[in-house]
């Protein structure tokens, strides 16, 4: 209570606040002149600056759980509850989720591939299960369509491509980008929704060439590709929530910076023990 009175000092009279909060005026003045404890000194000189720095380096995206994980990595033991309190005092509010446009068009009459995943998004080895999906990013020039391939084990974006259309060529470009960095193991699975691009003959031929099995979720069931849906939510919240790019090229550069500089290399993921995808991959 004394801390709250101290924070509001200058806004209201001390006597009035002590009366409202039901504390003795002498008690407040005794508290305010008392030397800081070692606990309070550490919070002011070490913990708060570390939290502010971690929040800035996360591009204002980390909540109390990830902030606590960052501090523990540098030897500062702190609970999520304490992180939440300090972030509130410092007015550090992470970016909130936003809605986005769905892009799947499953009205194409093609026979779907079997669902080999069945909402089990776990994989003990890298490059045995990749998920893929399209989404749309709004720019002042029009929509930019983005497709990714995401490794389920490491949560790494292994390949991506963006263009003004949702053509099969964009999908193949993203898959080739993935192949230039990582090669799926024999009998690996690529799982997607039932977007028409995934039925393309050339894409299917490339999957066959690399002995990759194709898997598809049910129409309109977001949980059947939940891991990629989560990526879209993360990307649009952390990268595009406060900015509408002027052009598609600007949006593409923002995506490159986010995936290649931050998401794969630095962003901590709770599902892999609060490591970045690149860091986690090195442990395997």
Q: How would you characterize the overall build of this protein?
A:
By secondary structure, the chain is an alpha/beta fold. It is built from eleven helices and five strands; from the N terminus they run ααααααβββαβαβααα. It has a five-stranded mixed beta sheet, sandwiched between helices. The chain is elongated, with a radius of gyration of 24 Å. The termini are far apart. The mean pLDDT is 87.
Our measurement of the CA-to-CA distance between the termini, rounded to an integer number of angstroms, reads 49 Å
**Which value, in Å, is the CA radius of gyration?**
24 Å
Principal-axis shape equals elongated
Class of secondary structure makeup: alpha/beta
Number of strands: 5
- What is the count of DSSP helices, taking H or I runs of 4+ residues? 11
Which residue ranges are poorly predicted, with pLDDT under 50 across at least 5 consecutive positions?
none
Strand order of the largest sheet: 3-2-1-4-5
Largest β-sheet summary: 5 strands, mixed
Order of helices and strands: HHHHHHEEEHEHEHHH
Mean pLDDT: 87
Strand content: 5-15%
Helix residue percentage:
40-55%
How does the SSE layout of this entry go?
Elements: H1 2-7, H2 14-21, H3 25-33, H4 38-57, H5 64-73, H6 80-89, E1 129-139, E2 142-151, E3 157-163, H7 168-179, E4 189-192, H8 201-209, E5 213-216, H9 226-238, H10 248-263, H11 277-282
Parallel strand pairs: 1-4, 4-5
Antiparallel strand pairs: 1-2, 2-3
Helix pairs in contact: 4-5, 5-6
């Amino acid at each position: 209570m004394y801390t709250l009175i101290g924070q509001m000092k200058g806004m209201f009279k001390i006597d009035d606040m002590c009366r409202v909060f039901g504390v003795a005026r002498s008690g407040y003045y005794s508290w305010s002149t008392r030397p800081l404890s070692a606990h309070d000194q550490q919070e002011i000189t070490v913990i708060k600056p570390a939290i502010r720095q971690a929040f800035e380096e996360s591009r204002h995206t980390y909540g109390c759980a990830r902030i606590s994980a960052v501090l523990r990595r540098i030897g500062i033991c702190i609970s999520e509850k304490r992180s939440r309190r300090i972030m509130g005092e410092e007015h550090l509010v992470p970016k909130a989720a936003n809605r986005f446009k769905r892009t799947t068009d499953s009205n194409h009459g093609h026979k779907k591939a079997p669902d080999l995943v069945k909402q089990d998004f776990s994989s003990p080895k890298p490059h045995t299960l990749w998920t893929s999906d399209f989404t749309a990013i709004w720019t002042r020039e029009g929509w930019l369509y983005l497709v990714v391939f995401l490794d389920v084990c490491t949560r790494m974006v292994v390949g991506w491509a963006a263009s003004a259309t949702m053509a099969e060529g964009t999908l193949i470009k993203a898959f080739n980008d993935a192949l230039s960095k990582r090669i799926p193991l024999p009998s690996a699975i690529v799982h997607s929704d039932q977007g028409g691009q995934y039925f393309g003959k050339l894409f299917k031929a490339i999957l066959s060439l690399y002995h990759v099995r194709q898997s598809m979720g049910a129409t309109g069931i977001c949980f059947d590709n939940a891991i990629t849906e989560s990526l879209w939510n993360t990307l649009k919240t952390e990268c595009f929530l406060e900015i509408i790019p002027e052009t598609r090229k600007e949006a593409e550069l923002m995506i490159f910076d986010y995936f290649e500089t931050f998401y794969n290399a630095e962003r901590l993921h709770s599902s892999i023990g609060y490591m970045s995808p690149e860091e986690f991959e090195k442990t395997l």
